[in-house]
Amino acid sequence: MTAVSAKTGLYSTLTFESEWMMISVLPFIWLYNGQHGKKSWITMYFFYIIYPLHLWILMILRYMFIK
Question: Measuring CA to CA, how many Å separate 67 from each of 15, 54, 55, 56, 57?
Fold first, then answer.
Protein backbone atom coordinates (compact mmCIF):
# COMPACT_ATOMS: atom_id res chain seq x y z
CA MET A 1 0.00 0.00 0.00
CA THR A 2 1.45 3.33 -1.01
CA ALA A 3 1.15 6.62 0.81
CA VAL A 4 -1.14 7.99 -1.89
CA SER A 5 -3.65 5.14 -1.63
CA ALA A 6 -3.65 5.35 2.17
CA LYS A 7 -4.92 8.93 2.01
CA THR A 8 -7.98 8.19 -0.11
CA GLY A 9 -10.24 7.12 2.76
CA LEU A 10 -13.39 8.87 3.88
CA TYR A 11 -11.74 10.45 6.94
CA SER A 12 -8.96 12.07 4.95
CA THR A 13 -11.38 13.18 2.25
CA LEU A 14 -13.65 14.92 4.75
CA THR A 15 -10.88 16.44 6.86
CA PHE A 16 -7.85 17.16 4.72
CA GLU A 17 -9.26 17.56 1.22
CA SER A 18 -12.11 19.87 2.14
CA GLU A 19 -12.02 22.41 -0.69
CA TRP A 20 -14.89 20.65 -2.43
CA MET A 21 -17.12 21.17 0.62
CA MET A 22 -17.44 24.89 -0.20
CA ILE A 23 -20.30 23.84 -2.45
CA SER A 24 -22.44 23.24 0.65
CA VAL A 25 -22.43 26.96 1.58
CA LEU A 26 -23.40 28.26 -1.85
CA PRO A 27 -27.19 27.99 -1.25
CA PHE A 28 -26.84 30.10 1.92
CA ILE A 29 -24.85 32.74 0.05
CA TRP A 30 -27.42 32.84 -2.76
CA LEU A 31 -30.32 33.12 -0.26
CA TYR A 32 -28.78 36.08 1.55
CA ASN A 33 -30.88 39.19 0.89
CA GLY A 34 -28.64 41.83 2.48
CA GLN A 35 -30.78 42.29 5.59
CA HIS A 36 -29.97 41.47 9.19
CA GLY A 37 -31.84 38.63 10.83
CA LYS A 38 -34.19 38.87 13.80
CA LYS A 39 -32.59 40.12 16.99
CA SER A 40 -33.49 38.14 20.08
CA TRP A 41 -31.65 36.74 23.07
CA ILE A 42 -31.26 33.37 21.38
CA THR A 43 -29.78 34.75 18.18
CA MET A 44 -27.48 37.14 20.02
CA TYR A 45 -25.98 34.68 22.53
CA PHE A 46 -26.45 31.30 20.88
CA PHE A 47 -22.84 30.79 19.83
CA TYR A 48 -21.42 32.36 22.98
CA ILE A 49 -23.14 29.68 25.08
CA ILE A 50 -23.61 26.65 22.85
CA TYR A 51 -20.16 26.53 21.27
CA PRO A 52 -18.10 26.34 24.49
CA LEU A 53 -20.74 24.10 26.08
CA HIS A 54 -20.56 21.51 23.32
CA LEU A 55 -16.75 21.52 23.52
CA TRP A 56 -16.93 20.82 27.25
CA ILE A 57 -19.40 17.99 26.65
CA LEU A 58 -17.18 16.45 23.98
CA MET A 59 -14.15 16.72 26.26
CA ILE A 60 -16.01 15.04 29.14
CA LEU A 61 -17.21 12.24 26.85
CA ARG A 62 -13.68 11.76 25.56
CA TYR A 63 -12.29 11.32 29.05
CA MET A 64 -15.15 9.00 29.97
CA PHE A 65 -14.56 6.65 27.04
CA ILE A 66 -10.79 7.02 26.56
CA LYS A 67 -9.06 6.53 29.88
Answer: 25, 20, 18, 17, 16
Lowest mean pLDDT among 6-10, 18-22, 63-67: 6-10
State how far the Cα of 24 lies from the Cα of 14, in Å rounded to an integer.
Answer: 13
Average pLDDT over every residue of 40-53: 84
CB neighbourhood size of 13 (10 A): 13
Distances (CA, A) of 14 to 9, 17, 19, 58: 9, 6, 9, 20
User: Are 7 and 16 spatial neighbours (Cβ–Cβ below 8 Å)?
Assistant: yes
Which residue blocks in 1-67 are alpha helix, DSSP H?
A: 3-6, 10-15, 26-31, 41-65
